[in-house]
Amino acid sequence: MTGDDQRDESTQSAPDAPPSKKDVLCTAVELAGRAPSLYNAQPWSWKVNDEDAELFLDATQSFPVTDPDMREARIGCGASLHHLQVAVTAAGWAHESQLSSGLEARLLAQVRLTDPIEADPAALRLAQAISLRHNDRRPFSTQPVSADALAALQAAVDDEGVHLQVVTHDDRIWLSILSERAAALQGSREGYSEELARVTGANDASPNIPTDEIPHVVSPRHTDVTLRDFDTHVDWVRAGEALSRLLLNATERGLATGIQSQPVEVAMIRIQIDEHLLSGLGHAQVLVRIGWPGTTNVAAGPDPQQG
Ligand SMILES: Cc1cc2nc3c(=O)[nH]c(=O)nc-3n(C[C@H](O)[C@H](O)[C@H](O)COP(=O)(O)O)c2cc1C
User: Fold this and answer.
1) Using 50, 70 and 90 to split pLDDT, how confident is the model at 307?
2) For residue 243, what are the domain limits?
3) CB of 70 shorter than 6 A to ligand 1
4) Are 157 and 199 in contact (CB under 8 A)?
5) Is 52 helix (H, G, I), strand (E, B) or coil?
6) What is the per-residue pLDDT across 127-159, written as a single tens digit (0 to 9) for each?
7) Which residues pair with 165 in a beta bridge?
8) Which CATH number fits the domain that encloses residue 248?
9) Which of 43, 61, 118, 124 registers the highest number of CB atoms within 10 A of its CB?
């Protein structure tokens, strides 16, 4: 469902009039559609009303083998929700959001516009990052990300009630090994190759993701782990909001980002990550590589393991 679908003649503003709330929301929904999602499935649908927009989980975009409880689908929806909030703020509107579990009628969130506000430059820069961000699967430059930049990103994620754990060099190697184990375990699951074929377009002329652009963990320069203290349906949406905030803030700083989820898709590997990296204090939701963009145009790694 796009913003264009929502506009009708009765609600369109006259040329010189300020855009109506509905117009603002329609434009924001277009930007919300650029959020990252597992296998680029975009498992959300937006309904725009006169004063608010409602976010629904689109259960037709599910991957029962990769994401059996639709945890990652909800993370994608949370990212789309945060994109919409950023767009609305940049358009000069304060808003209130209410989250729901999605268990009833698949409604995950409602965002209501309240009062016009002065759009500040920081909000505009974050909104611009929506169009600049992309999931970078290439090797990153060897230039390190400064401790100050990582601390600022951690603070932004903390602000969303989610923790960003920066992992050490040794832990990155350990994670690469776990990632290979996860790939082997997942690859042997019944139905996994069919699911992968569906998204890589083995049976399709227009795939979600080209096969050669789906590696798992490959020589990460900086791998960070986002997590929450709890692991409920609403927590997953919140983790998605925090993920979006992390990615947009990093993009605004000129940093490249790449999401990797395979290790946390395999329950026994996720438990090891929770215990070893997070001291049992939370649940890992996704891994994110953060670094300075590399110079090569070649996609990182030939293994079509994950999307
Ligand atoms: C929950 C989640 C898990 C993801 N897992 C992976 C992954 O394991 N490997 C990968 O290359 N990309 C992964 N992605 C990134 C998507 O493939 C990417 O967002 C999508 O293809 C759209 O591309 P874009 O982010 O450049 O717009 C994930 C994204 C989300 C939200």
Assistant:
1) very low
2) 147-291
3) no
4) no
5) strand
6) 999 999 999 988 889 899 999 999 999 999 999
7) 225
8) 3.40.109.10
9) 43
